[in-house]
Amino acid sequence: MGEAHETIFTMEATPVKYGAGASQDAGWELKRLGIKRVMLVTDPRVAALGLPEQIARLARNEGIEVVTYDRSRVEPTLESLQDAADFATEHEVNGFVSVGGGTSIDTAKVANLVASHPAPVMDYVNPPVGKGRKPPSPLAPHLAIPTTSGTGSETTTVAVLDIPDLRVKSGISHRYLRPTQAIVDPELTRTLPAEVTAATGLDVVCHAAESFLSRPFDTRPRPDSPEDRPPYQGSNPVADVWSAKALELGGRYLRRAVANGDDVEARGFMMLAATMAGVGFGSAGVHIPHSCAYPVAGLAPRYQPHGYPDDHPFVPHGFSVIVTAPAAFRFTYDAMPERHRHVADLLADGSPPAPGPDALPGVLRRLMRDVGAPGGIAELGYGEDDIPTLVDGALKQQRLLAVAPKEVGEDDLRHIIAASMRNW
Ligand SMILES: [Fe+2]
């Protein structure tokens, strides 16, 4: 290892309280965090289930004032995030609690950021799309309570947003965006439809696989200052532990959680897997499948999912990620064959495939089929003519592609996307 290489990685994670009934501690946790007036961030679908009202009641029982914001969009935009930030400023809150999927948690992260350090949302968006401005000091406390088992957003430093005008998805990432505390309560996922469980579970699997198969942290150049150290550090011994365990749980429980919503054990382990994968990828990072997922989800999709109540066509995040995963990991195989083999074995749940470059893609395709995932990009509404635009969109995610275990250029992405049109 030469002198110019990074020698340091950071261990950082949201404190997590996990278990059936854990959400009953929400009021106690908010009080512990010193919050007097809290903005509860949720979305209309979750609000209709009554969960946010239960959390609000627990907060009020502790003498905390609650203002509820239930307008989180499934795909947050600059406008929807600004709207949430304005709401926070207007109501002079000193803390946040998010109750919902990744988008509610992400909306709370950005509302907290912009209310704490006022600036246009775009200033904070990752370059080259935005200016990559960094918040000068920590934000207000944020308690995250996920109600799906997928994004792991409760443990990460990232918020994802849609920029329809530029036809691109991008993100804001900074360590201060990481929630102060998470409560992960498997009982909150009981009502998730099978398709949502499948999509979010496949997202979990990709978070863990991409992290485990990311560029080792000590192959990055050493940064000039600690400030320049990226939130996505690349694979490291601590992230590996979390990612490997999440892969094992995903291989063992995802099929069961999808097949039977009342399988409380499987749902519980998938929710734990989501959080564990969140810790892994919040440290190591995700790369090619997530880079491709941005344009796949963001470019005028024609896909109408069945399990989601929203009446507009959109590609669930987990499906947009998984469709390119088999081809992406076929491409990265030669950068770290042993690690690819390990991921395939963990996901295969006791029946390891024959080793080789096609082992992991094969295991992933089987899992996708078993949980009813779309068979490829074509099924999501894209044709061969769309390939150049999809490649362009993936190339915009340089922050993620930099974490891939080998250099990935335009031709490589074209090959991966073309091969992902139909996975079987
Ligand atoms: Fe994801």
Structural class by helix and strand composition = alpha/beta
Radius of gyration: 20 Å
Order of helices and strands: EHEHHEHEHHEEEEHHHHHHHHHHH
- CATH homology-level superfamily of the largest domain: Dehydroquinate synthase-like - alpha domain
Helix fraction, binned, reads 40-55%
- Intertermini distance: 42 Å
- Low-confidence parts: none
CATH class of the largest domain: Mainly Alpha
Count of all domains: 2
Shape: globular
- CATH level-3 fold name of the largest domain: Dehydroquinate synthase-like, alpha domain
Multimeric organization: single chain
Q: Number of DSSP helices?
A: 17
Strand content: 5-15%
Question: What would you note in describing this structure?
Answer:
- With 424 residues, the protein is an alpha/beta fold.
- The protein has two domains: 163 residues, 3-Layer(aba) Sandwich (Rossmann fold), CATH 3.40.50.1970; 226 residues, Dehydroquinate synthase-like, alpha domain, CATH 1.20.1090.
- It has 17 helices and eight strands.
- The chain has a six-stranded parallel beta sheet, sandwiched between helices. Strands 6-7 form a two-stranded antiparallel sheet.
- Helix 4 packs across helix 5.
- It binds fe (ii) ion.
- The site of fe (ii) ion (FE2) has 6 residues, from helix 7 and helix 11.
